[in-house]
Amino acid sequence: MFKTLIDAATLAQHVNDPAWVVIDCRHDLMNPAFGRDAYAAGHIPGALFAGIDDDLSGAKYGPDGVFRGRHPLPDRATLVATLRRFGIGDATQVVAYDAHGGMFAARLWWLLRWLGHEAVAVLDGGLPAWQAAGQALATDTPARAAGTLSDRPALTRTVTVDDVMANLTSATNVVIDARANDRFRGENETIDPVGGHIPGAKNRFFKDNLQADGTFKPAEQLWQAFTPLFTTPATAIMQCGSGVTACHNLLAMEVAGLPGAALYPGSWSEWCADPARPVATGT
């Protein structure tokens, strides 16, 4: 069972294995059509496509009409149905990949763990690593029989915006922001309407988890980078712009042997939507 990362050579041995499902998670925050277009142009043989905006996210507004962020968690039953459509069952080994160092694939990794599915890994280095290994691409969309994935107890933790607000006073947990340093400081914000960060948060840019070739840094290096940020992983709340790249930090922590941190799914996009919530800028 692969539960964090898998390399291209190992995946190549299993692309025709009916017990494995490979999911293409490529995406572009500024061009929603990019992922599906890239998939159609060429993907790992046998892979299916999952869209961040639709398959792997829920409604931006709750039943009360309140904005929940740019990529809220999907309804659990809806997500189970989506993943069953991809042919995923309780015994399926799932491999998620993108072309961005796991930036988007980590979201599917986290969501499957949220549903209690342990056998899910991210392709280390993504599609570039696959092609660098001399592996071919395909353009067909495979047909798969529906899977039987169950909704089981979560292997992950989440917190709400109210939890994060309460933490401003209690300071029980440390919030760790996965966005780029300039966005964290409130500079060059081009995605959300307000620049800055949650007061008291620390910054750990998710791309700092990667080596120059787009693969993850060794576990020891990741351990050394993350452990100064918190007392224990259980006291850490991971966030980003919309709950996607925070999953990359959570994956890096798992690789480092530091499980137990929580995800704040709404992240900065939800937080900054209410002017009553405080905003910090600078470092």
Automatic annotation (TrEMBL):
<feature type="domain" description="Rhodanese">
    <location>
        <begin position="174"/>
        <end position="280"/>
    </location>
</feature>
<dbReference type="InterPro" id="IPR001763">
    <property type="entry name" value="Rhodanese-like_dom"/>
</dbReference>
<keyword id="KW-0808">Transferase</keyword>
<dbReference type="InterPro" id="IPR045078">
    <property type="entry name" value="TST/MPST-like"/>
</dbReference>
<keyword id="KW-0677">Repeat</keyword>
<feature type="domain" description="Rhodanese">
    <location>
        <begin position="16"/>
        <end position="139"/>
    </location>
</feature>
<dbReference type="InterPro" id="IPR036873">
    <property type="entry name" value="Rhodanese-like_dom_sf"/>
</dbReference>
<dbReference type="InterPro" id="IPR001307">
    <property type="entry name" value="Thiosulphate_STrfase_CS"/>
</dbReference>
<protein>
    <recommendedName>
        <fullName>Sulfurtransferase</fullName>
    </recommendedName>
</protein>
<dbReference type="Pfam" id="PF00581">
    <property type="entry name" value="Rhodanese"/>
</dbReference>
